[in-house]
Amino acid sequence: MLPDILILATSPTAAVNEQLERSYTCHHAWQVAPEQRAGWLRERAGRIRAVVTTGALGLKSEEMAALPALEIIAVTGVGLDGVDLDAARARGIAVTTTPNVLTDDVADVALGLLLATTRHIALLDRFVRDGGWERREPVKPASSLRGKTAGIFGFGQIGQAIALRLAAFGVQVRYYQPRAKPGVQAPRAASLLALAQESDYLIVCAPGTPATRHAVNAQVLDALGPQGTLVNIARGALVDEAAMISALAEGRLGAAGLDVFADEPRVPAALRALPNVVLTPHVGSLTVETRHAMGQLVLDNLQAHFAGRPLPTPVPFK
């Protein structure tokens, strides 16, 4: 008999979905209308041994409690802000993520957002489409990246991959995270506030945790200043969104490039109306190659678990 697994979010890769269907009895919650989901799940809850989810969807403690046979939570992505790790630890439920395989694509999007904001690419695209160039309307010069300083908040694999890319543009890099990163050449700022004060660009790469919620607050945004640019490819909760909107609207912050938001997929109308922002719908890892690799790593973790082998990418419980 195949193990029963609950799938909260489907993989965009057909090959991964086919492997899941061959290897497991799959229960696709995402296909069920929200108002019918609770009853649908109650009928299956006792058989569910694994949950496939995302970092944003996660799995809360009350949801785990409703799954008495649950053994493993396989997260597609690296974020864990939606997973109650304390509840998983208490139950002895394994948790896995899909690190490493998405690093380069997320770093590329961070650079794309930085270029799009500093060089006004999105604004200039609209300028051409709306006929401004043909009408010979004046174009405001953009800012060069060369010679600027980028502060990276969170200097893990993605932060370091962004740093490598910035070096090719002649951008100086410094970083902040609570613990110094051994073996890196980039200097570490004394605090996040100091990092913003020392930087032209602030790129947010830190994990979404209770400790980092609204870490980029009004004080940090004011320190970045009216010529500064904020790029966030981590989690929307790391930035005080209301404070950011006010700073952008009042000219206390120069620009922002955002792939993540506080209440996805809802983006405040006030933010969408601002001309000095570039917005993308949380697509940092959305390439064919990376999404396939992420899905395959979810499969690898599930297969290892049910075969009694060591998990390829477990989340270590502290």
Number of distinct helices: 12
**Structural class by SSE content:** alpha/beta
How many separate domains?
Answer: 2
Largest sheet data: 6 strands, parallel
Helicity level, as a percent range?
A: 25-40%
Pick out the low-confidence regions: none
- What CATH calls the topology of the largest domain is Rossmann fold
Mean pLDDT: 95
CATH class of the largest domain: Alpha Beta
General form? globular
Oligomerization status of the protein chains: single chain
In CATH, the homologous superfamily of the largest domain goes by the name NAD(P)-binding Rossmann-like Domain
The CATH architecture of the largest domain would be 3-Layer(aba) Sandwich
* Radius of gyration over all CA atoms, rounded: 21 Å
Number of strands: 11
Strands in their spatial order, largest beta sheet: 7-6-8-9-10-11
